[in-house]
Amino acid sequence: MKIIDNIYNQPERLQKILDTEGTIADNLIRLVQQKHIKKVYFTGSGTSFHASTLISMYFNKFTGLDAQAVIPDNFTNYFVPSLYFKPDETLLIGISQSGTSSSTLDAIRKAKSLSFNTIAISEETKSKIAQEADNVIYLNTGDEGIPVETRGYTSTIMLGLILALRLGLAQNKLNEAKYQDFLTQTKEDITKLPTTLNTAEKFYQQHKNELVTMRKGAIAGYGYNYATAMEAYLKLYETFHAPLSVHEFGELIHGYEMAFDADQYIFLIIANGPEKSLANKYIEFLKQITKHIFIITDQNIAFDSGAKILKVPSLHNDELSPFNLIIPFQIIASRNCEAIGYDTSKYPLKAHSFAHF
Question: Boundaries of each SIS domain copy (predicted)?
């Protein structure tokens, strides 16, 4: 199995997950209603934390719960229970695709020691994490077969979006008509992802010689796509091994720019939101430092000529843009590794990581 195979399988897998929308949230809805849940924490490591960050935004948007993403070790070692939410009305959802994350298991155990309710989201529904949580929700991403997760990320955020929408519907935070409209639009938008894949491939081939010589970079995004920036950072770093940094859009030029020079690669994710009006100001500033500026966007904007622009199809809803805008980074990561002969199908270290049991 190659990373590119999982990347191209994403539209099919996302549709498969969407097809489960009628029942996949039943256990969550039942728990929230029976326990009168008011607060939910999402936790997971690496890609699962990036997904948690986005899913918490979905829950804050569509449900009546107060949602927050938290790094597992921070929750386990430093968490102070809120004075505003009782333990029995608090829920921790631990996400681990493999079901073997030591830190996520520790967080679930910590939550149970605090008398919180717990749910595991995992591909492996009989894993240790799934067994120790009160409930388990099947991730349904399929076996990626390699250490680098791509399809796992988009599968997780699709599942999280469906859970938020279904719970919001059950809580009367959105009505049936709006729910069905969102589903219809999501199904339509999934059919646009092959176009995004093709567009990203052409862009990569056009700029391959520049992208494959990257030695350091920075990625910035905002809103729903700050999570995209975090996941893009991980994909490029863990595959191509060039040092990168990740930033919320506004934070990029609050001191970090002082480390930039002519060798710096900058990737700006420009989605819908107030920040998009600043895109050309960023380019005008950054092009004085480096010529390696890349814009990944779904917006129809006349960008400054100082940047290379990758324009992917626009989708119906802002909440769906992360599914679209992560794909170019996945393609760059995969094709760069192919170009230098690096095999992403194997764990690169001889030492065994204790991050997984």
Answer: 28-173
What is the C-alpha separation between 239 and 47, in angstroms, rounded? 14
Q: Is residue 36 part of a domain?
A: yes
Q: What is the pLDDT of residues 136-150, one digit of tens each?
A: 999 999 988 888 889
Of residues 151 and 347, the one with the higher pLDDT is 151
Overall domain count for the chain = 2
CA-based radius of gyration for the chain: 20
**How long a stretch of residues is the chain?**
357
Token pair belonging to 169: 């519907």
Residue 199 lies in a domain: yes
In a domain, 353, yes or no: no
Using an 8 Å Cβ cutoff, are 341 and 326 in contact?
no
Domain of 285, in residue numbers? 194-340
What are 278's two structure tokens?
Answer: 């600043």
- Which position has the token pair 């992560």? 326
Structural domain includes residue 355: no
Residue pLDDT, tens place only, 46-105: 999 999 999 999 999 999 999 999 999 999 999 999 999 999 999 999 999 988 899 999
For residue 290, give the nearest of 265, 271, 269 by alpha carbon: 265
Q: What are 222-253's pLDDT values in tens digits?
A: 999 999 999 999 999 999 889 999 999 999 99
CATH number at residue 294: 3.40.50.10490
